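Escalated from tier 1: pyridoxal-5'-phosphate holo job.
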Amino acid sequence: MAVDFKSLAVKGVQGLQPYLPGKPIEELERELGVSNTLKLASNENPMGPSTKVIDALHEPTPQLDLYPDGGGFILKDKLSKKLDVTQSQITLGNGSNDVLDMISRAFLCEGREAIYSEFAFAVYPICIQAVGATARVSKALPTDHTENPYGHDLDAMSALITDQTRVIFIANPNNPTGTWLNANELDEFISKVPETVVVVVDEAYFEYVTEPEYPDTLQWLDKYPNLIVTRTFSKIYALAGLRVGYAVCSEQIADLLNRVRQPFNVNTPALISASAALDDNEHLATCVAINKEGIQFWEAACQERELSYIPTVGNFITIDFKRDAMPIYEAMLREAVILRPIANYGLPNHLRITISTPEENQQCLDALDKVLGSNLGSK
Ligand SMILES: Cc1ncc(COP(=O)(O)O)c(C=O)c1O
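Tier 2 regenerated the structure:
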């Protein structure tokens, strides 16, 4: 009789739903025969990486036969100077997802609990469940909330803390909603969390946020030894294909994360590229400015068309079409534009659009107008 390997897997894994990535361009072009596809599905940076990264990658070829610097010395050195922390407070990851996974493996197991908000980033439940821990999901703020619709409800999150809670995941800003928490509310929240509970503030889109009230969480590391801040090179630094992220926290917690970190988890080209990317503040500023323009473009476009959207501070915007968004997503695919359905987040009427360059934003909007103007897309 054939073996049922599912029954042999650990309990958490048996019930896991795999992460759903955005549709790859090659897949769409193979399936529908379209070309010149615009992929606005995974919050990648359309500006691409800094030319300093490209130059660094063309420098004398790194020795690919040797293992990477497992300690990531050069990158950590640069990061520690830039962020004004010690190298021992930094843990490098194969993308920040890797760091989120390390946090779960270090602090969670069966019988322990982790908290996150409804509509929060989809990797949290995977990390929690994979190690057999219990996820406690707080209701998000109502969709018609005046200040922070769909946002994390910090009171609701606090209310879920029990003696078993070990980790709280907070995405700031959150993906896929683009909602964010200001310094006062987040500070007040963390101040009330027991020190025995690790608070992870996931700042994957940190560099894009220009709101003056957005927190400078690294300043809080001294007062909150239970705080872990995670960031990535996948978004504004445009290195998603190379996989580099990091956590900054107390040296004691970093030591624990490094115990579960796979040796050599960040590869040599990734280390070189991330270090070079940190040298180009000008490119960063250009990307921030283009994104800001893009946010204004999309918000104005939605308002003109009376489309409901969630106000965003990230490099993406989520639109509520007030009806099943799947036919719109599929019609957009036929227009060679890949958007992101987010029914898996409990938002079946919404699509998330990565904010791009002015030309690509317009191209996407034209396609959306065509789709919404057709019978299929009509309101
Ligand atoms: C909120 C949030 N956190 C973390 C990540 C993980 O990014 P990476 O593993 O590429 O660093 C993402 C990616 O989409 C994200 O949206």
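The first helix runs from residue 5 to 8.
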